[in-house]
Design brief:
This protein has 238 residues and is of the alpha/beta class. The protein has seven helices and seven strands. It has one domain: Rossmann fold, CATH 3.40.50.
C-alpha cells in the first residue's frame, strides 16, 4: 500500500495565486485541498472543496476532512479580495466584505489549521499579507491595506501560540502582482506603478508561490512570525 502524500490546504485556490500554489505543491508531490467559493478545476493531486472562508464552520469542517484524507502538514490562507478605487469614494459595504474575507477568513483558517496541525504534532501556516498592509496606499479601497495589516498582526499571534505545538506561522507581503489584481488599474496607472518599482515590473505569481512553498515546508525549522517582503525592493522594512 502506498503512503498517502503529505497534505496542504490552500484557500483562494481558484485565484491567480491560488492556482500557482496548487501547481507548485502538486509538482512537489503534495495532496492539495483546494478551497474556494469559485469552482476549482479538478486535476491529479487536487481535491476541490467549495468553502466560504467567512463561514467558520465550513473552514473547520474543511480542516477535519483534509486531516482525515492525508497527513496534513501545511495550510495556506490565500483567499482575498482586492478592490481598486479612490479612497474618497470608499463605501462601507465593500469595507465589510473585504475585511470579512481577508482578515476574518484568515482568522478562521489560522484557528482551524492550528487545531488540526497541533493534534498531528506540528506543521506550517502561511498567510498572504501585502505591502499595502505595511505602507497603506492610494488607488485602492482602504479596507485592503487595513485588512492586510491585520493579517500581519494575526500571523504574529499565531506564531507565538503555535510555537509550543510545533506549528510555525509566517506571512508573505507581496507588492503588486501581474494578473487580475494589477488589471484592476488602467493602462496609465499600471505603467506608473511598474516604473515606480526598482525592478521596473510587477511580481509574478510563481515568485510568490516559491516563497510560500519554502515557508510551508518542514525544512523551515526556525522562521516563525516573519512577514516576508516579496516586492522587488519597493519597500525594505528593517
Amino acid at each position: 500500500m502506498s503512503t498517502p502524500a503529505r497534505g496542504v490546504v490552500v484557500t483562494g485556490a481558484a485565484g491567480d495565486l491560488g492556482r500557482a500554489l496548487c501547481r507548485r505543491f502538486v509538482d512537489d508531490g503534495w495532496a492539495v485541498f483546494a478551497a474556494d467559493l469559485a469552482p476549482v478545476a479538478e486535476a491529479e493531486g487536487v481535491v476541490p472543496a467549495r468553502v466560504d472562508v467567512t463561514d467558520r464552520a465550513q473552514v473547520f469542517d474543511l480542516a477535519e476532512r483534509a486531516a482525515a484524507a492525508a497527513p496534513l502538514q501545511a495550510w495556506v490562507n490565500a483567499a482575498g479580495i482586492f478592490v481598486a478605487g479612490a479612497v474618497s469614494d470608499a463605501d462601507e459595504a465593500t469595507w465589510e466584505r473585504v475585511v470579512a474575507v481577508n482578515l476574518g477568513g484568515t482568522f478562521h483558517g489560522c484557528a482551524a489549521a492550528l487545531r488540526v496541525l497541533a493534534r498531528a504534532g506540528g506543521g506550517r501556516i502561511v498567510n498572504v499579507g501585502s505591502v499595502s498592509g505595511q505602507v497603506g496606499g492610494t488607488g485602492v479601497h482602504p479596507a485592503y491595506g487595513a485588512s492586510k495589516a491585520g493579517v500581519h498582526a494575526l500571523t504574529k499571534t499565531y506564531a507565538l501560540e503555535g510555537a509550543r505545538h510545533g506549528v510555525l506561522c509566517n506571512a508573505v507581503a507581496p507588492g503588486l502582482l501581474e494578473g487580475s489584481m494589477s488589471h484592476e488599474f488602467g493602462d496609465r496607472a499600471r505603467e506608473r506603478l511598474e516604473s515606480a518599482n526598482p525592478m521596473r515590473r510587477f511580481g509574478r505569481m510563481d515568485e510568490v508561490a516559491h516563497v510560500i512553498r519554502f515557508l510551508a515546508d518542514a525544512s523551515n525549522t526556525y522562521m516563525n512570525g516573519a512577514i516576508v517582503p516579496v516586492n522587488g525592493g519597493a519597500y525594505m522594512p528593517s
